[in-house]
Amino acid sequence: MAFQLCGFKFASLLLLCLFAFGEGRYKSFVRFNKVQNTNRKVVFEEQWFIQRLDHFNGEDSRVWKQRYFVNEAFYKPGGPVFLMIGGEGPANPGWMQEGSWITYAEKLGALCLMLEHRFYGKSHPTDDLSTDNLRYLSSRQALADLAHFRTVIAENRGLTNRKWVAFGGSYPGSLAAWFRLKYPHLVHAAAATSAPVYAKVNFPEYLEVVWRSLASENPECPLLVKKAADILAERLNDPKTYDNITKDFNLCSKLQIQTQTDSAYFLETLAGNFMDVVQYNEDNRGFEGAIGTNITIKVLCDVMADASLGDPYYRYAAVAKLMMETFSIKCLEAGFSAYVRDMTNTSWKGPAAGGGRQWVYQTCTEFGFYQSTDSPNQPFTGFPLPYHVQQCADFYNISAEELDQTVAETNEYYGGYNIRSSRIVFPNGSIDPWHALGITRDITSDLPAVFIKGTAHCANMYPARSEDLPQLTMARDHIFLLLQQWLKE
Ligand SMILES: *[C@@H]1O[C@H](CO)[C@@H](O)[C@H](O)[C@H]1NC(C)=O
Ligand SMILES: *[C@@H]1O[C@H](CO)[C@@H](O)[C@H](O)[C@H]1NC(C)=O
Ligand SMILES: *[C@@H]1O[C@H](CO)[C@@H](O)[C@H](O)[C@H]1NC(C)=O
Ligand SMILES: *[C@@H]1O[C@H](CO)[C@@H](O)[C@H](O)[C@H]1NC(C)=O
Ligand SMILES: CC(=O)N[C@H]1CO[C@H](CO)[C@@H](O)[C@@H]1O
Question: Cβ < 6 Å from ligand 3: which residues?
């Protein structure tokens, strides 16, 4: 969401699994990065790898430094090498000692590496984030980074004959699958959690899953949310209500709606409260430094059912205030123009440089994934596809035609759902809205899906805890057995 202080959101394009410190809509990278590692037993030193800027142009010899982390504590000579793939935010060193891949590494004597994705975190290939420089940001360049890193590290550390396994969740989950697909000689197997392998400009299915996930808590809940969202949208047509809305939703300045885009942005920002909570419902993310992990679907649905707060509109406002309190946000910044200003700032110190400007660029040039309100079977209203597509033009001068074309090319290049490879496991959670673009059925016995009923985004990657659902524990064990078996092949 766009908030003063923390002030930013990923234009409703949440995908992150591995990166926290209050990221996603509640950007505040700077604030949370300061508390990074305070509880860590070991501090993992960042290391740097010389990488080429453009892997596909032999005449361009420019290089830059890519950040990575190593944990050798579990490695037994002859063991495998695990490579955690970074994604659309800073690589979080917390993952070097926690998460289920670490449990697997302990059991299998694996060396653990994590490579930050180009253009995110501290891995800066260019001087700034100008649209011209963002040309070098793509999943294909990122896979070539992984291939070169894997090759050179293997040579330098005498690991050439070891079996490498790629791990990733969400977008990096897709990268893990594609790494195995495109570079089969470099990576022996992959675990691609909650991976949206199919690119799609319009992704209304996301909000359909949000409806179902809210309904699984309480069938009334999505109906109440819909009622509230409809009332709010209706009031936006009447400027006389703006003073009340400004007060009810604790806006930083008086609500101004001049265009459809202003209204879409405001409605999307408030819907974002529910989208975020559903996506990460009960994920064990505390170790990442994530805050607000106790705000669950149940908590939001309880607020929506609380008649003492007034009609559903006031309950919707109460949810917004609860989120603001949780994330220590003073007031809600609801203006689209401030968002455009942030998103077009090309400085590495800019307000969207934590990943927002880069990730939205990738959606405009590779993936789409726009979570529009274009389906009737979802609770929200007022942010249709054209609102999202227009942002590609506003931020990067990319047209709707170019967007359609590049998304089609992505599926042609990687194969979409039709992945032809082997030794890739695809875990998916029934509550996670991203499962709608993932592999949810075994493709072959060598490309199995692992379904986890009742869990959200990337649940199986987070550390185990006693209150985990039994099916989540079973999924982790099942993935381990698959990896163990594949490492013998
Ligand atoms: C603003 O809210 C008050 C109650 O808090 C209500 O009496 C008033 O009619 C509302 N104004 C408008 C224009 O809706
Ligand atoms: C969540 O945890 C915080 C910090 O422990 C606490 O202040 C807050 O009341 C909790 N919220 C809910 C809804 O449980
Ligand atoms: C970009 O953001 C930085 C840091 O907030 C700021 O100093 C700079 O003035 C901004 N640039 C523009 C063009 O707004
Ligand atoms: C935007 O893109 C169009 C078509 O590619 C190009 O002609 C135009 O010059 C671009 N505008 C800017 C401001 O870069
Ligand atoms: C929600 C969802 O799509 N679940 C699927 C995940 O994968 C399994 C296969 O293991 C499917 O049976 C589920 O339908």
Answer: 345, 347, 349-351
| Nearest ligand, CA 247 | 1
Q: Could you read off the pLDDT of 270-288 as tens digits, one per residue?
A: 999 999 888 776 666 776 7
- With b for 16 or more beta-carbon neighbours within 10 A and e for fewer, the 115-125 pattern comes to bbbbbbbebbb
Residue 375: active-site member:
no
Q: In this structure, which ligand is nearest to the CA of 234? A: 1
Q: Give tens-digit pLDDT for 354-389.
A: 999 999 999 999 999 999 999 999 999 999 999 999
Residue 345 Cβ contacting ligand 1 at under 6 Å:
no
Q: Mapping DSSP to helix (H, G, I), strand (E, B) and coil, where does residue 321 land? A: helix
Which residues, including other chains, have CB under 8 Å from residue 332's CB and lie 6 or more apart? 1, 2, 3, 4, 249, 250, 251, 252, 269, 320, 324
Q: Is residue 430 in contact with ligand 1, taking CB distance under 6 Å?
A: no
Q: Which of helix, strand or coil describes residue 293? A: coil
| Arithmetic mean of pLDDT over the chain | 87
- Partnered with residue 47 across adjacent β-strands are 68
What CATH number is given for 1-489 in this structure?
3.40.50.1820
170 classed as catalytic: yes
Domain ranges of the chain: 1-489
DSSP, collapsed to helix, strand or coil, labels residue 169 as strand
Burial classification of residue 160, based on how many CB atoms lie within 10 Å of its CB (0-12 exposed, 13-18 middle, 19 or more buried):
exposed
Q: Is 432 an active-site residue?
A: yes
> Counting atoms of ligand 5 from 1, which one is nearest the CA of 449?
10
Cβ–ligand 5 distance for 188 under 6 Å, the answer: no
